[in-house]
Amino acid sequence: MSVEDGVKYVAAAYAIILAVLVAYSVWSARRVSALEREARLLSTEVERRAKA
Amino acid sequence: MSAAPALSGRRQFWALLRKDVVSELRTKEMLISMFLFSMLAMVVFHYAFTATGDIDLSPFTGGMLWAVFVFASLLGLNRSFVHEKDEGCLDGLLLCPVDRVTIFFAKMTGNLIFLGLIQLLAVPVFTVFFVTSGYWADLSTFVAVLVLADIGICVLGTLLATIAMSTRARDLLLPIVFLPLIVPLLIAATAATTEVFSGDVTWATLWGKLAFLLGYDAVFLVAAWGTYDFAIGE
Amino acid sequence: MSAESINEAGATPTTRGKTGWRRLVDVPVLFVAAGVSLVTGLLLVFWVAPEEATMGFPYKILYFHAPIAWCALLGYLVAFVAAILYLRSNDARWDRLGMCGVRLGLVFSLLVMATGMIWGRSSWNVWWSWEPRLTTFLIACLMYCGYFVLRATVEEEERRATFAALFAVIAFINVPITFLSTRVLPGDMQHPSGVVEGGGLVGWMYPAFFVSMVGMTLLFFALLRNDLRVERLKEELAYIKNRLGS
After folding, report:
1. In a domain, B16, yes or no
2. What value of ipTM does the predicted structure carry?
3. Does residue B219 lie in a domain region?
4. Is residue C16 part of a domain?
5. Residue B19 belongs to some domain of the structure
6. Is residue B51 part of a domain?
7. 3-class SS of residue C103
8. What is the pTM of this model?
9. Considering only CB atoms, which chain C residues are within 8 Å of B176?
10. 8 A C-beta contact, residue C3 and residue A47
11. Domain presence at residue C162
């Protein structure tokens, strides 16, 4: 097997690893911020109702 | 008025077992279905493998046998809990002062008996269809393999069926959870059975497989013992 | 329920209110540490570590393949321990931990199989070989997918958590059993087996492996904590919405 093929395989493997882990981390972080945003909205709602 | 003395664990076990066996023998629904399924599966296997002409199936006999019985037992395992749950019998049972683990052992033994009955009929048919070499010399070994593998299937199957029956999609769920877990047993039983059917059994290679089956049975028996309260509890 | 408590309910991305070591293991810190470690690892792998004698350049895949496998098993182990703790205490936090552990375990398992297949293709020219490690991860994937199917079919929370915990325990017990059965039992076909064949680690390979292992483990814990936070937030939000709605 030639050197280029070897490099291609290694590159493919690391690319997949990077892609999956980055994608998962990003997705996870976005879930957190979306939920936090919702928490903030709810807390203002709670305040509003407490004052009313 | 004094309460009647509670039955001992052993007598409870026999009572439960008798209940399951007698009620099944009355209708024989499950037994007949499992047996017919086994026959049909064998036919399918024959045609699946002989697409390119008649070939020697001896390397595959172990695999075919256990594929047939693993799938047939799925049928039986589902059924063993279905009417309990549907007719409310299980609730009644749980109200009695019976140890949950006793219920497990009774159910498991019942399933084992049913699987054994099916095999009593289906295995000779299988050997007529597919096995060319004589394995009579190793009959006791073969029976040992059958028994050990059956125990494993029934222990794990009963535990998982208990969980599955309390879910929404019990028929669909049981195969999904059961099959990956039964793979190691399948590997060992297949290897051992193929060796027996090849007519050339060397104890050196076989004992390891039997030991593995025994170990597998023991591990999951202990696991079931420890967790059955959670599986069946309400 | 005050506004502050809703915001405090795990929703803070900063280290507000935390002291000492907890600040150190807060999520952004873990991510950064993991990133640094993994990048260092990559540098070590490609610039420092010598090329492996028998297997050549593709061997470099293993520097990340092995740590990923370790993290997958770690995920399942976390789920196993969490399951036992749940069964003993009935505390929903353990159920959440278990679920996150299984989820991460699955993600890492899929990665293991993907990299394992690429490695297999490069070394033995086959995409799949039924060798013990690969097969065990495949079976584990199938089992733990079943975990999520099980969770989906039970509506009542406590029962769902109990069944999931039970299954996590049984599944984890089955992982070493499966590995044993695939390795020891099948008779004559000798499938190429994994890392050990290559002749072992030499010299500068050690730091590369070690750093990658550390980095991947840090990433695992960062993701785990993040996922836990997500699950906790979801539950608390659902609870709050319930209360607000009523």
Report:
1. yes
2. 0.86
3. yes
4. no
5. yes
6. no
7. helix
8. 0.86
9. 145-146, 149
10. yes
11. yes
